[in-house]
# Entry
Amino acid sequence: MKIQHYIFVILIPGSLVLSPLESRAYLGEVAIKMPEGDVILEVGAMPDPPPSRRQVIDADKGTACLQCHHMPYPTAPQEPEKPGEKVLSSIQKTPPGGLRLLTSVSSPIHEIAGGWSPDGKRVAYSINLFKDDWDIWVVDADGKNRGPLVSGPAIDMAPDWSPDGKAIVFHSNRTWNNDIWRMDIGSRELTQLTTDPDQDTMPKWSPDGKKIVFQSNRSGNEEIWMMDLATGRLTQLTDNTARDENPVFGPKGDKIVFVSDRNGGKDIFVMNVDGSGQKALTQDPRKDLSPHWSPNGKKIIFTRQSLENLNLWVMNSDGSDPIRLTRPLILQLS
# Structure
């Protein structure tokens, strides 16, 4: 069976953003909020043509919607992986909106979503057209006007829109190692923000657009750093022998959530914007990855790896009441 890679989008006002599944149940990054509500970006490998499938999670009410052409509707309840864990088991009515195919490329080309522009009109994402060559492309919300934004013989990845939508930041090895770069959307002018010989990756804007947080191994191991864009001043926020990664500003700009293995396994941590008050939100033998805030800052959604499967989980921003939202989608390919 022919396999193609897609980026899907579902527009569901008022629902929490999710990231669904690739074949073999791989979960990618989650999207971010649109002005009208939240959206879901799906990045994955599906049969050609893809199955009809859509899913919505309301993090506050705990309702789920799932439709797939090869499973009964409503779907069967989920089972907890460990005794006492909470899962979403009620399958509600099909949501408004729908599933739209934004991109379609044949394997082995891969696409990884970066996120929505603040006005909700475009999606930036990374695309792997050739070996060791990733570019950043942009596509309109209706799937039209798809084309390169950042290109060249380099690995350009992890685009993040500025709050005003006039620029993106991303990491690139176009100077032989990964540094943080900024592109002005209007002029396409590139500015190199970091020049360290070590690896600076995964940048995220602060909500006020004045700072960028990123991960770097410039101090000897992977730590969380912050840059003041007006002055270029760098502040190291974490300092330990562990690997700290994937930082994301909270919607108010006063908190940063990140991943760390300082307790032995990968867990979700949170800290104040100055690096103080670091504490674990999860402490689980499974790997907890890719945290993102809900728009109101009350919830954190993340992926949890169990054996070879990853599922989406949501918890309160203080780490309480974790609930598993999804179960793996296993595609029967032949």
Remarks:
- The longest strand covers residues 3-12.
- Confidence is low (pLDDT under 50) at residues 1-77, 89-100, 329-334.
- The radius of gyration is 19 Å.
- The chain is about 0% helix and 50% strand.
